[in-house]
Amino acid sequence: MRIVIVGAGKTGAFLGAKLTEDNDVTLIEIRSARVEKVRQMLSSARVIDGDACEPAILEKAGISGADLLVAATGDDEDNLVVAMLAREYKVKRVVGRVNHPANEWLFDKEWGVDQALSGPGALWHLVQGQCEAAAVQTELPD
Hints:
Elements: E1 2-6, H1 10-19, E2 24-29, H2 32-41, E3 46-49, H3 55-60, E4 68-71, H4 76-88, E5 93-98, E6 115-118, H5 119-139
Parallel strand pairs: 1-2, 1-4, 2-3, 4-5, 5-6
């Protein structure tokens, strides 16, 4: 699978490390110092130095042939711009990282996102499920 990961911070680099074994992975990172660190950590991945909000950088990363794009920067606005651009390039599947829960409603198909992932949102759903399970257990007769 051809995968483009935008943002090579902790989240993007972690995904890159996990996905490079069985996939063709390219990471895009705007911070030059981080690019060098990630290149050393992930020798089997391609790491591009540049702003993924610029179509030329996405083209350099091979976006037009990507099966999956993960917008994993620490900035929701950048992640949405990248997701919309990915749609223009006909990327098969787009995953968007949501950094601020108040923005989660924006990460949908209209904005080019197939799947939104929010750390706080996922944690909230997990805790809510545990609370509901505990409530059901207390209502069950012994």
